[in-house]
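Preliminary data (for renewal application), iron/sulfur cluster complex.
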Amino acid sequence: MKNLRGMTYEDILQEVTALGAKPYRAEQIFTWIYKRGITGIDAMTDVSKVFRELLKEGFFIGAVDVAAVRRSPDGTVKLATRLEDGLLIESVLIPDADRLTLCVSSQAGCALGCKFCATGMNGFIRNLTLGELTGQVFAAQGLLEEGARITNAVMMGMGEPLLNYDNVIHFTGILTDARGFGLSHNKVTISTAGIIPGIERMAREAGVNLAVSINAATDEVRGRIMPVNNKYPLAGLVGALRAYPLTGRKVITIEYVLLKNVNDSTRDAEGLIKLLKGITCKINIIPLNPFPGARFSRPDDKAVEQFANILRNAGLTALVRFSKGADVQGACGQLAGECPSASHSAC
Ligand code: SF4
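Predicted structure:
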């Protein structure tokens, strides 16, 4: 039996064609599944009963098992979903003035082991399937109040999205399909720790936003806090960013987790300015969100502002992101897959 909630439009088209149905059936089914969010095949009222019965012989609509929900007074909601094999993954709903952003996990655990990240401390378990990616949207939608809708999605939860490339790209396709979840391409972001081949593929294949977790201006510092830098050093990474095609008003988001006495000096800021020369970007500065077992500390607010101002004075757009949801361990770097007491990540 196959889960319709884990299938692309092309997958469904192939299946209905194999069942002898006309191609328009695929569009009907895809819309029922993702846009209307039905939970049973019988809800497809414009599909004949005979064909629904045929569908039920080979397909089902996977349910999501929300294992825990934690709500922060700032409106952030962290939810843990239990997968079929018992693993827990976490997603975070982040409300803002006119936005409701869903932060989605791409893997159970993460192999990259960034030293400032709770997810990275626990190692890699496995990639999430397409059904487990879309399942996070359905789980979050189930918590929304009447009339509310998710407006933005960021692949910044647990895991490195570009190491689960195919499922993540299919997922962003469903997110941005008007017959699917219907988000604008501009409202969907994939955040990577710097997997260069994945960035190069994204440049050719994906129409969504790119965010890169840089976190240091030299290989020496970056290699210490992000082991992935040993495989993909900064020169190659910024080369890939310079070559990255940007249309319209799109910019690359540079994430910079600020760690006290590690990467927060004037020299670090000046190095970053040099490094980012020629890249159309904005910089999100994220003062470390502490988590149990963290080996770094957060700089004080004055140091954070000073760092941001050096970048701004050089003409860069630098935003300080005092992350929401820290009190429910749902902020960047805090996701660890042990909700309700924990979790992420790619910042
Ligand atoms: S920051 Fe992202 S890439 Fe790094 S260990 Fe955490 S989840 Fe993995």
